[in-house]
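In the design runs reported in the main text, the only information available to the sequence generator was the tokenized backbone. The following block is the verbatim input for one such run; it is reproduced so that readers can re-run the procedure and compare outputs position by position.
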């Protein structure tokens, strides 16, 4: 399979690898399973898949078309298309959102580094109960110094890559590592499915119980679809701007969406049977994946190697996502403010670290951030919801409104088809971008405001 695809991949290497690297990350493997678990399972998953198809793919194409036409960062792109208007502020919202997401995402990414270290030192090789695994996790997240240091380490790695520009080396590495991640995930899924009681997990994940659908479940599914595909903040505008003019852009965009969604579902197929088997509650929250996975490694042949490979690949998948988050912010300061790439990467990386500290302290390190504003919800989760659900949704609404009603579907289609490859179902896509996306996202947001089901 790899050989057959290779020619196609290397033709579009830069884009597909960078975009798949951006899309595939903790959103798939950490956020999808725990959000599905918190929101009742099957009905959430169905909504998520519907949103990927009806909103995600149109927004992917809308963002890519803007990027390809303007060849600019999100702010510069809107400036180029409608100078002297308020539209560039939409790009500004994207830059701000990139920062907001990076400031909590880097904390979680830091945790994966700690698990990688644990894998190497043999913590995850043998049998482990859910209680033992929970104790390890709580020790990690509750230790302020450790959590902050790991966040700093991860941001440091991100800055190192971004200051040089996303290099050929990273692209080549992604080409091998992402398929490897897929193979490891398939292996874990097979193990998980054969665990005693695992079938109950699959039923929970795939059997929709429509009585579970509430405003906040719908909002979470929409947010998850956008977050997982890196949409609504201009990351795909930025990446579309680097896409070769002669290549088939819409096909590449759809491949990335399909790959990303497959990885998320696969993560669900790993986590849910396992959690039912070891007796962890599906709605255990953000710690779910960190607690459940170590309980499977011990029962695998070569468990320690599996654990090392898995956490190494997860850290890299997270890194290719944090790179894209910082890249959007850096591209803005380089292009629009004339900063050098090196300075922008270091300064913005450092600033992001400062903003990440409260999130790193919000899982027990500091009471103030653990129970933020007396809400019972920690600061990291607040950020995850505000930036990851609401800001991306607002961004997606405005981007599709812009393409549908201001810039125009014909201009977007011309951009997507400029390589001479016709977009199959172009008419339907136009309708989705112009009507379905802004109206559906608008209704969801208004419903949330009216019913006040924010979380
Ligand atoms: N899509 C990434 C993930 O699923 O982990 C997270 C992300 C990256 C969101 C880049 C948004 C973004 F612009």
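Verbatim output:
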């Amino acid at each position: 399979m790899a050989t057959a695809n290779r020619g196609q991949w290397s033709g579009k290497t830069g884009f597909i690898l960078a975009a798949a690297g951006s899309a595939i990350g903790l959103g798939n493997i950490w956020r999808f399973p725990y959000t599905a678990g918190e929101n009742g399972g099957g009905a959430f998953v169905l909504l998520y898949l519907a949103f990927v198809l009806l909103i995600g793919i149109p927004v992917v194409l809308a963002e890519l078309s803007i990027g390809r036409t303007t060849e600019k960062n999100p702010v510069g792109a809107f400036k180029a298309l409608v100078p002297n208007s308020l539209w560039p502020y939409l790009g500004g919202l994207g830059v701000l959102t990139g920062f907001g997401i990076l400031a909590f995402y880097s904390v979680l990414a830091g945790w994966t580094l700690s698990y990688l270290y644990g894998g190497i030192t043999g913590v995850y090789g043998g049998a482990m109960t859910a209680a033992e695994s929970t104790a390890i996790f709580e020790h990690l997240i509750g230790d302020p110094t450790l959590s902050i240091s790991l966040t700093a380490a991860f941001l440091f790695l991100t800055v190192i890559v971004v200051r040089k520009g996303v290099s050929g080396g990273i692209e080549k590495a992604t080409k091998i590592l992402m398929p490897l991640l897929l193979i490891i995930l398939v292996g874990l899924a097979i193990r998980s499915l054969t665990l005693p009681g695992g079938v109950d997990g699959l039923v929970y994940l795939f059997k929709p119980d429509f009585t579970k659908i509430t405003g906040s479940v719908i909002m979470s599914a929409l947010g998850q679809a956008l977050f997982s595909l890196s949409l609504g903040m201009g990351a795909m505008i930025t990446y579309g701007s680097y896409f070769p003019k002669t290549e088939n852009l819409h096909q590449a965009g759809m491949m990335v969406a399909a790959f990303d969604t497959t990885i998320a579902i696969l993560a669900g197929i790993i986590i849910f049977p396992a959690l039912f088997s070891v007796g962890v509650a599906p709605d255990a929250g953000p710690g779910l994946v960190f607690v459940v996975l170590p309980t499977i490694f011990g029962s695998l042949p070569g468990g320690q190697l599996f654990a090392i490979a898995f956490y190494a690949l997860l850290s890299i998948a997270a890194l290719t996502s944090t790179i894209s988050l910082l890249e959007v912010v850096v591209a803005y300061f380089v292009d629009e403010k004339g900063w050098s790439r090196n300075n922008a990467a270091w300064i913005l990386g450092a600033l992001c670290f400062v903003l990440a500290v409260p999130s790193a302290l919000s899982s027990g390190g500091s009471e103030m951030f653990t129970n933020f504003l007396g809400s019972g919800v920690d600061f990291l989760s607040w950020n995850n919801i505000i930036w990851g659900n609401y800001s991306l949704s607002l961004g997606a609404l405005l981007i599709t409104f812009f393409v549908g009603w201001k810039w125009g579907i014909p201009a977007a289609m011309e951009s997507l088809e400029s390589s001479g490859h016709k977009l199959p179902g172009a008419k339907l896509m136009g309708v989705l971008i112009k009507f379905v996306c802004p109206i559906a996202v608008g209704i969801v947001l208004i419903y949330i405001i009216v019913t006040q089901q924010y979380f």
